[in-house]
Design goal:
The structure is a single chain. By secondary structure, the chain is an all-alpha fold. It has twelve helices and no strands. Helix 3 packs antiparallel against helix 4 and helix 5 packs across helix 7. The chain starts with 9 loop residues before the first helix and ends with a helix.
Length: about 210
């Protein structure tokens, strides 16, 4: 069982995921396991608020209210709730529905109604395919750790720390051309490693 005070700890979350599959998590939740509920809250809350923000721009307070209501509803209906998708899909769908309900009562309802009508049935698949920031961040870290050290070092100094090629070259005592080649190879490696995330990470790679 997860200690409530540490249920948001990353190492505890990883250990928990190794111990239980999603069906076991749902079974425990239906039995009223509060630790399971807290684990789900800490795992998904921040990402769901970000997702809500893609629909309700610049309305973070409302986004947080919607996500909190999703979790409250999950807990209140835990005994009877039926989740036919993944937990991630369930939470994304629930938050999306909450955002659309909010829009129906706002001044921008007409524009978004047209948007939803245009997407039609594709809206469901788009929601399920939404990539959580934590999913992308985890995969990116995996990719960086998997590439040769000299490529990773040059890439991180340039893309993450914002150093220019000449600054990196001076720091590593190599030529600018060498740094350019290393970063180019790092980008090629990541494009292949993150091919399933390509459209989502394109902006990051070409900053």
């Amino acid at each position: 069982m997860i200690n409530r005070e540490n249920s948001g700890n990353v190492s505890n979350q990883i250990s928990f995921l190794l111990m239980y599959d999603e069906q076991q998590i749902l079974d425990q939740l239906k039995e009223g396991d509060e630790d399971i509920f807290l684990f789900l809250f800490h795992k998904y809350y921040k990402d769901l608020v970000l997702f809500a923000g893609t629909i309700l721009s610049d309305r973070r307070d409302i986004c947080e209210d919607i996500v909190q209501n999703v979790f409250l509803d999950l807990w209140s209906r835990r005994c009877s709730i039926s989740i036919k998708t993944s937990l991630k899909g369930f939470f994304l769908q629930s938050v999306r529905n909450g955002c659309l309900d909010e829009l129906r009562h706002s001044k921008v309802v007409r524009a978004h109604a047209d948007y939803v009508a245009f997407l039609g049935n594709d809206m469901d698949s788009l929601t399920e395919q939404y990539i959580l920031h934590s999913d992308l961040e985890f995969r990116l870290k995996e990719g960086l750790n998997a590439m040769p050290e000299e490529y990773r070092q040059a890439f991180e100094l340039n893309r993450i720390h914002g150093l220019k090629y000449r600054e990196i070259a001076a720091n590593l005592q190599v030529s600018e051309r060498t740094i350019e080649e290393r970063i180019g190879k790092a980008l090629k490696f990541l494009r292949h490693y993150l091919r399933d995330f390509f459209l989502w990470i394109l902006f990051l790679l070409y900053l």
